[in-house]
């Protein structure tokens, strides 16, 4: 083989290798806290719904105990996509200086219509009968600065109670909320699905107020966020992921699939069916947008409330830090 033919062959081989490298699926590292509440539904393992997974993208699931902890994950590249609570979203931009962070899709909304709103429980036979009774008591949330934590603080402030001055606040992971209340270690706990539907907790405790009560209306509780650098490099794969995610939402919320959904969820969580049967993926569950669009006006209002509580240095224009073009494109494919 002549020198020119050898060079041509080498170039052709290089192009083939480059093409193969480009064809490799994009790995998207996705954060989650509680399954199936805020986890990607693909994580539950139902085959045949996602059409692009394994083709244009693959998923890696990274567990966190709260959304504020995801800020470091997004900053370091440990995760690419995270369902941030409204306080964490603003803090990531203002405090962590992640100026390229973008809200890219809906993750979870609180108190939309008759859908679920986060619950704040006290014991039936305990000393707390009204919010004012929490003065001098111990309350707990999953993380300081989380959305459910801010809802609690706001409600207590409405009733003249301030952290440290009037009550003691500690952190407790969601699975340990029920034990610390039943053991009288705290006087109020914060619960999200599925923990809020535990028959035992609802037999010995009651809801003192909800997040919707505290916020005065629905909240954009969690918004999926990604950095612009990752978006710009992997936009096509993200559109495919959002398309598959919307398809997952539609399948799981289809009443015709409910019995199979309960089997899938209980197999994944190893929890009894009774914990999920009456509410999971029905109108009683947390609201998920069927087209994947977050309520940016609600997000802006929620961030303003967090600012009023002193958790965020300045108000934030949520619309400025949003890129919904990908989820809109994904939703259009399903029409």
Number of helices: 11
- Beta percentage is 15-25%
Give a count of the beta strands, DSSP E runs of length 2 or more.
10
User: What is the CATH architecture term of the largest domain?
Assistant: 3-Layer(aba) Sandwich
* Whole-number total of structural domains: 2
Q: How are strands sequenced across the largest beta sheet?
A: 3-10-4
How would you sum up the major sheet? 3 strands, antiparallel
CATH class of the largest domain: Alpha Beta
How far the N terminus sits from the C terminus, by CA atoms, comes to 55 Å
Q: Give me the CATH fold name of the largest domain.
A: D-Maltodextrin-Binding Protein, domain 2
Topology pattern, helix = H, strand = E: HEEHEHEEEHEHEHEHEHHHH
**Poorly predicted runs of 5 or more residues:** none
Category from helices, strands and their pairing: alpha/beta
Q: What is the CATH homology-level superfamily of the largest domain? A: Periplasmic binding protein-like II
In round numbers, the mean pLDDT is: 93
Estimated helix fraction: 25-40%
How would you summarize the topology of this molecule?
Elements: H1 3-23, E1 26-32, E2 57-63, H2 70-76, E3 82-85, H3 86-94, E4 101-110, E5 119-123, E6 138-141, H4 147-158, E7 168-171, H5 177-182, E8 189-191, H6 199-204, E9 205-210, H7 211-215, E10 219-227, H8 228-252, H9 258-269, H10 296-308, H11 325-333
Parallel strand pairs: 1-2, 6-7
Antiparallel strand pairs: 3-10, 4-10, 5-8, 5-9
